[in-house]
């Protein structure tokens, strides 16, 4: 698995996951429990992971949908 994006924006990961799911790309969210422990004040970022062989497709799909993220 490789990191596709890391963000403190609580709306970005659900959006990215929905877009990826529509394209048949599986994803996995990390650090959910850590952000809950810190009280959901947005200090600790969450990460979205995808399979290594799908990382390029996932980046392309997110760009096509206009989802902003850093490589």
TrEMBL record:
This is DUF2007 domain-containing protein. InterPro entries: DUF2007 (IPR018551), N-reg_PII-like_a/b (IPR011322). Residues 1-65 form the DUF2007 domain.
